[in-house]
Design brief:
The chain has 264 residues and is an alpha+beta fold. The protein contains six helices and eleven strands.
C-alpha cells in the first residue's frame, strides 16, 4: 500500500481512508492475510491512529476485515450467500436447520427473559392472545451454535417456558446436547401457528465475543424470533450472528440471513 495526502480532502478523513484501504485490500492483499499494525498503517497514511481505527471499524462492519483474537486484523473472505434463516413455519431443531445443540438449563426467568416472552403475539399468531408468564415458572434455556467450515459464526439462546413442553419432565436427559435436543423434540410436538422475526445491529457482549471468537464490542446481527401456538408465545430465540460473515437480503419471505465462507 502506498501513502496518500488526506489534508485537502473535504470528506471525513476516516471515510476517505476507508476507500483507499478498500482498494488496497482488492489489489495488494490476499484473503486471510494479516494487515500491518496500527502504528505502521497510521504512519504510512499520515493519519492519527484514531482516524485509522474509525476506517478499520467501518471496513469490519462492511465485512471486508476480521479482527481475530491473538491474530490481529485479517482480510475477510467474500460472502457466499448460504441461506440460514428465512424458512417459515418451522420449529428450531427441525431437519436441516444448520444449528448444533450445546446444552439446556432450567431456571426461573430473569426480567429480560420475561419481557422477551411477553412481547406481543404478532401478526403471525393469527390473533391469538399472548400468554402471561410468571416469574416463578421455570424456563428452559437451550444453547445452540452454527458452525461454518469449523468456525462458529452464530450463537443462539432459545427460551422455552416449561409450560410449553410439559412432557419433558418424564424424559431422562439431565444435561448437555441430549437435554437440549429433548427440549427441541418436545417443542416440535406443538402445532406451530406462525412466527415473526426482527433483526438489529448490535455489539458483541463479552460472552458472545468469546463464543464467536470476536473482540468485545465487535458488530453483530441480533435476530429475535418468536414462535406462536394457539395459546400465544411458545418460545423465543435470540441468535447472535457475526456481522462480518453475514448479510441481509429481502424477498417474499421477508428477511433472509446469509452467511459467508470463513477463512481458516
Amino acid at each position: 500500500m502506498g501513502t496518500t495526502q488526506l489534508e485537502s480532502v473535504p470528506e471525513p478523513k476516516y471515510w476517505h481512508l476507508k476507500t483507499v484501504l478498500s482498494e488496497a485490500l482488492d489489489h495488494d492483499f490476499a484473503v486471510g492475510e494479516i494487515l500491518p499494525n496500527e502504528r505502521e498503517l497510521a504512519a504510512r497514511f499520515g493519519v492519527a491512529r484514531a482516524t485509522l481505527r474509525q476506517a478499520l471499524e467501518q471496513l469490519e462492519l462492511e465485512g471486508r476485515l476480521q479482527r481475530r483474537r491473538g491474530v490481529g486484523t485479517t482480510v475477510a473472505p467474500p460472502r457466499v450467500g448460504v441461506a440460514v434463516g428465512s424458512a417459515r413455519h418451522s420449529w428450531p431443531g427441525e431437519s436441516a436447520d444448520g444449528w448444533e445443540a450445546v446444552d439446556a438449563a432450567e431456571a426461573l426467568p430473569t426480567a429480560a427473559v420475561l419481557k422477551l416472552l411477553a412481547g406481543g403475539s404478532g401478526s403471525a399468531a393469527s390473533g391469538s392472545a399472548s400468554a402471561v408468564f410468571a416469574a416463578d415458572q421455570p424456563v428452559y434455556t437451550v444453547r445452540r451454535t452454527r458452525v461454518t467450515e469449523g468456525q462458529v459464526v452464530a450463537a443462539e439462546l432459545l427460551y422455552v417456558p416449561a409450560a410449553s413442553v410439559p412432557g419433558l419432565s418424564a424424559i431422562d436427559a439431565p444435561a448437555g446436547p441430549a437435554r437440549a435436543r429433548a427440549v427441541l423434540r418436545e417443542l416440535q410436538r406443538l402445532a406451530l401457528d406462525g412466527q415473526d422475526r426482527s433483526v438489529e445491529l448490535g455489539s458483541a457482549r463479552a460472552d458472545d465475543a468469546k463464543e464467536l471468537d470476536r473482540l468485545p464490542g465487535a458488530p453483530v446481527l441480533l435476530v429475535t424470533t418468536r414462535y406462536f401456538t394457539a395459546g400465544g408465545t411458545a418460545a423465543v430465540s435470540v441468535a447472535t450472528y457475526r456481522a462480518d460473515t453475514c448479510r441481509l437480503t429481502f424477498g417474499d419471505e421477508g428477511v433472509e440471513i446469509t452467511e459467508t465462507r470463513v477463512a481458516s
